[in-house]
Automatic annotation (TrEMBL):
InterPro entries in UniProt: Ergot_Alk_Oxidoreductase, NAD(P)-bd_dom, NAD(P)-bd_dom_sf
Name of the protein in question: Uncharacterized protein YbjT (DUF2867 family)
Residue ranges that the Swiss-Prot or TrEMBL entry lists as coiled coil: none
One Pfam family linked to the record: NAD_binding_10
Highest classification ranks of the organism: Bacteria, Bacillati, Actinomycetota, Actinomycetes, Pseudonocardiales
Occurrences of domain NAD(P)-binding (ranges): 6-180
Domain of life, source organism: Bacteria
Length: 285
């Protein structure tokens, strides 16, 4: 049995059915079991990274763990909590950690949240794989309300380009890492097939929706005001704005061939993702 954390999130929702369809039994860890539809091969357990007892119960009897924690300052604490839970059982043989592009130690990386978790996975004594994806194509869904209202898409990134990746590719890579022995002791940086800007993404959405969509530049000071008005944590605001600055200056203009290496096919392009998810930009939110 494979334990999947973050089972109701973007990657988990794709990964769980892929694993079950491949013949694996899955245990899904979630704080809200009602968000998962029962199906054969799926065991849903109630758990929380802040509750060590629930984590120990979740890992018991599993042979592999997919470790996904929500971005933010709690990533390190949650990753280490799961690593401690894995240490309580001999059944877990494989750990796959979902990290993020650019992860490194604090002295080398501006975004070290995942570093301690990566190191804990590598030091666990189990076979491991670390996945470092870049920006998700699904992040575009944050523009859905503006697009439905006929408004331009807010752009914090200027003309900065990224190797935007389809989350379905990340999930498919995770299936290979969890179910085969060809990716042990590997750290992969996962990207899409091309470098694209916000304007490129909006053009793809315009094509998929059959109507013109514009963009509007959002300066950093305006973005800060907007995020502050939502009650967002100041530290998270600083991180978001620094990330936007890096993207704006092409600091995340990174492409790798890791998806092709693992899956034996090219990574999925953003236009395909936009076409496949067009209805999410027209249906009521």
């Amino acid at each position: 049995m494979i334990l999947v954390t973050g089972a109701t999130g973007t990657i988990g929702r794709a990964l769980v059915p892929m694993l079950i369809d491949s013949g694996e039994r899955v245990r899904a860890l979630t704080r809200d079991p009602s968000r998962l539809t029962p199906r054969p091969g799926l065991d849903v357990v109630d758990g929380d990274f802040a509750d060590p007892t629930s984590l120990a119960k979740a890992v018991d009897g599993t042979h592999a763990v997919f470790l996904l924690t929500m971005p933010g300052p709690d990533v390190e604490r949650h990753d280490l909590a799961m690593a401690s839970a894995v240490a309580t059982t001999d059944s877990v043989r494989t750990l796959v950690k979902l990290s993020a592009i650019g992860t490194g130690p604090p002295e080398e990386s501006e975004f070290p949240w995942h570093h301690a978790g990566e190191e804990a996975v590598r030091a666990s004594g189990r076979t491991w794989t670390v996945l470092r994806p870049t920006t998700f194509a699904s992040n575009s869904l944050s523009w859905a309300d503006a697009i439905r209202a006929g408004q331009p898409v807010p752009n914090m990134f200027g003309g900065g380009r990224q190797g935007v990746i389809d989350p379905r590719d990340i999930a498919e890579v995770a299936v290979r890492a969890l179910t085969t022995d060809r990716h042990h002791e590997r750290t992969y940086t996962l990207t899409g097939p091309e470098l694209i800007s916000t304007a490129d993404q909006v053009a793809a959405l315009s094509e998929a929706l059959g109507r013109e969509i514009g963009t509007v530049d959002v300066p950093a000071d305006v973005a800060r005001e907007q995020m502050t008005a939502t009650g967002m944590d100041p530290a998270m605001i600083d991180t978001a704005l620094r990330g936007a600055e890096i993207v704006r200056t092409d600091g995340n203009a990174v492409l790798t061939d890791d998806v092709r290496e693992i899956l034996g096919r090219p990574a999925t392009g953003y236009r395909v993702w936009a076409r496949d998810h067009a209805e999410l930009f027209t249906a009521a939110g």
